Amino acid sequence: PPASIEGADYLVVESTYGNRSHSPADPRDMLADVVNRTVKRGGVVVIPTFAVGRAQSLLYYLYLLKKAGTIPSTLPVFLNSPMAVDATEIFRNHLGEHRLSTAECEAMCRMPHIITSALESKWLNSRPGPMVILAGSGMATGGRVVHHLKAFAPDPRNTILFSGFQAGGTRGASMLQGAEQ
């Protein structure tokens, strides 16, 4: 257990989100709203995804939303990040390290279509929506998400959904500030 300390000359704390308050809204409700609005337009939700942790959280939320009927149960979800696929498999193999039951974890991990090759990844760009694509990298600085952005961002039916911090100078931060190219 943690031990209390009497004092310190210096305290250094790392915190990505330390300077802001988070919305009290349920992230599942927010995700469902975005997905449903995009599906209604016949569009594609592209989520630049951090491979470890965030991808698995998003998969779990999407699984829960489908199970509850909050988003269409037939909506295709694609996991298109080799590192996220590997991290999800580690998540699945270490059930004692998280709070999901074996059944929940198995269902969540089976829900997405796993994209393993660059050719399959490029094929997604020609597949009609609606669908959800989770692809690395989370700040859209590289990886497979870059060609999905090129393919899907210009169409107003589609949604680019950033689910995490976007550092200054990254493509993700530029897009959030309104950059069109």
Provide an overview of this structure.
Helices cover 39% and strands 10% of the residues. It is built from 7 helices and 5 strands, in the order H-E-H-E-H-H-E-H-E-H-E-H. Helix 1 crosses helix 2, helix 2 packs across helix 4 and helix 3 runs antiparallel to helix 4.
What are the defining features of this structure?
alpha/beta, five-stranded parallel beta sheet, 7 helices, 5 strands
- Beta percentage is 5-15%
Give the CA-based shape.
Answer: globular
Mean pLDDT metric = 90
- The end-to-end distance, rounded to whole angstroms, is 50 Å
Give helix % range: 25-40%
Largest sheet: 5 strands, parallel
Structural class: alpha/beta
Are there runs of 5+ residues with pLDDT below 50, and where? none
Strand order, biggest sheet? 3-2-4-1-5
Oligomeric category: single chain
Number of strands: 5
Q: Which H/E pattern describes the elements? A: HEHEHHEHEHEH
Alpha carbon gyration radius: 18 Å
Give the number of helices.
7
Short description:
This protein is an alpha/beta fold.
Furnish the topology, listing elements before pairings:
Blueprint (H helix, E strand, L loop, with lengths): L26 H14 L3 E5 L5 H15 L8 E4 L1 H12 L8 H9 L2 E2 L3 H7 L6 E5 L9 H8 L6 E2 L10 H6 L5
Parallel strand pairs: 1-4, 1-5, 2-3, 2-4
Helix pairs in contact: 1-2, 2-4, 3-4
